[in-house]
Amino acid sequence: MAFRSWGRRSLVLGTAAIAGLGYAQYRRRRGSTASDSRYITERHASAFLVRRRVGGERLESVREAVSELCADPDNPQPLLGLEGATTATLFLDTGDEPALIWYVEVPRSATAGWDDPESRIEAAFPLEHDAIADGDAIDRELLVHAVNPNRPRTATGTDNGPLVVSGTEREDGVDVDLVQLHLKPGLAERLADRFAGLSQRVAAGELELGPIERWSGAMLEAENMFTESIVLERRPDGYVLCGYMETAEMAGVYDAYYDTWNPVARASELVLGRVLEDPEAILKYPLGTGLEVLAHAVDPDRPRRPEEC
């Protein structure tokens, strides 16, 4: 059930903690700022979303261009976009306002010296095409990032598999999706801002997770969720939580979520209905996000544990 492991931590701690749960478990760091956790979180890596508008009559042309971009299955660099990037996916939104959406993950060791990470990522968008135009300026902020210490280092999740896949080649690979969850206006949005501030302090090493991290990590592995990121978008029409998920099988995520009494899982189920405009968008499977996954790529040495970042 997408958004179930660390996504729940964001929706228990980001919508759930948005509602004030969970971060009561946070405590101030004393002394060392290093975490002893075996899980990569937003302390160790960043994740970004970049949107580009696409002319609705040119969607097929864009699909073909992406396929050409990813023609070499052993070279993920064109899709990763820039040095240091470790995981990337291109999504196509074919809705009323078509858009190409690029998700990219970069360890904080790579972004530490960047003056303006957001601008640098924007400039590294991996595809140039005359059907693509700059998207509207949107204020984005990473709330949660989490990595399974057992995630694969190929794009299909198989041993010695390709590093980049596109189109029908993805059918036998990992499940990747991006879900966009609209927050109710008012209180939920104010709590989202509060949570964003707490997330900044976590990333800066000023706060550490209590039992929430253990519970969330247990779900991450039980669900076979490889990578989860949650980005808050403050759009002109309201706040949206964008959840990126890379998993072995999305259906298995839902099975694991509903077959546990893990406190993080059960608390999130109660909270989602209170803060989201459409809770069923995440609480029911299949997701029906309306997004098409055009390509997915991973660096063969992408980190799986904090010390590898």
Notes on the protein architecture:
With 309 residues, the chain is an alpha+beta fold. The chain has ten helices and 13 strands. The strands form three sheets. Strands 6-3-5-4-13-8 form a six-stranded antiparallel beta sheet. Helix 1 crosses helix 7 and helix 1 packs across helix 9. The chain is globular and about 45 Å long.
In short:
The chain is built from ten helices and 13 strands. Helix content is 28%, strand content 27%.
Descriptors:
single chain; 309 residues; alpha+beta; 6-stranded antiparallel beta sheet; 5-stranded antiparallel beta sheet; 10 helices; disordered N terminus
Could you give the order of the helices and strands?
HEEEHHEEHHEEEEHEHEEHHHE
Give the neighbour order of strands across the main sheet. Answer: 6-3-5-4-13-8
Mean of residue pLDDT?
A: 82
Please indicate the percent range of residues in DSSP E strands (runs of 2 or more).
25-35%
Instruction: Calculate Rg over CA atoms.
Output: 18 Å
Task: Give the biggest beta sheet.
Answer: 6 strands, antiparallel
The class by helix and strand makeup works out as alpha+beta
State the separation between the terminal residues, measured CA to CA.
Answer: 28 Å
Q: How many extended strands?
A: 13
Low-confidence blocks of residues: 1-35
Question: Given the structure, what is the number of helices?
Answer: 10
